[in-house]
């Protein structure tokens, strides 16, 4: 399965997210990067790890809605 990947980067204050990333709504230390390539799951995770992050998961409906709208 090939899916666009979403990387969550930790260790940044949301107001200081790296360029090209979006701050989390619920965690001030979390930034999101929206990958534009379609990659198999393991390749997407490897790409995220290379950027000091991991594929993301959501833990609230609000965060899920926020992320799904950012991906438009």
UniProtKB/TrEMBL annotation:
UniProt keywords (A-Z) are:
Signal
Q: Which residues form the signal peptide?
A: 1-15
In terms of InterPro entries, this protein maps to:
C-type_lectin-like/link_sf (IPR016186), CTDL_fold (IPR016187)
Keyword hit for Cell wall biogenesis/degradation? no
Entry protein name: C-type lectin domain-containing protein
- This chain's source organism reads Panagrolaimus superbus
| UniProt lineage | Eukaryota, Metazoa, Ecdysozoa, Nematoda, Chromadorea
